[in-house]
């Protein structure tokens, strides 16, 4: 896994009133300061998670019909619980990011809807 360095700084966390898809617990948008940290650049794939299962450090996902499907081996793992994600992180020598860390890495420091602004990544 490639790690990406996220420098210490303030960022806008949450959603403003103009986001029609925002849930009520995402408001109000507010400033949060985070120390620097590292985060994995990509999601954990079925192949990567399968290695953890094979070594007995993780349990298979219960609700992921694509987990054992060869066509989805390099797709992100889905259907794991928070506890299973924690097990994987411990096995891989990582940790789960906090909600604030995840949001800063995903949305940038000015509270963009997507990493590239207002459009999903696939259209950047």
Question: How would you sum up this structure, described in words?
Answer:
- The protein has 3 helices and 4 strands; from the N terminus they run ββββααα.
- It is globular, with a radius of gyration of 16 Å.
- The strands form 2 sheets. The chain has a two-stranded antiparallel sheet with strand order 1-4. Strands 2-3 form a two-stranded antiparallel sheet.
- The relative contact order is 0.20.
- Helices cover 23% and strands 15% of the residues.
- It is of the alpha+beta class and 124 residues long.
What's the short story on this structure?
23% of the residues lie in helices and 15% in strands. By secondary structure, the chain is an alpha+beta fold. The two termini are 23 Å apart.
Helix content, binned percent: 10-25%
General form: globular
SSE-based structural type = alpha+beta
The stretches of 5 or more residues where confidence is low (pLDDT under 50) are none
Q: How many extended strands?
A: 4
Radius of gyration: 16 Å
- As a percent range, the share of strand residues is 5-15%
Q: Please tally the helical runs, counting DSSP H or I stretches of 4 or more residues.
A: 3
Query: What spatial order of strands do you see in the largest sheet?
Result: 1-4
Mean pLDDT: 89
Main sheet properties:
2 strands, antiparallel
SSE run: EEEEHHH
Distance between the termini: 23 Å
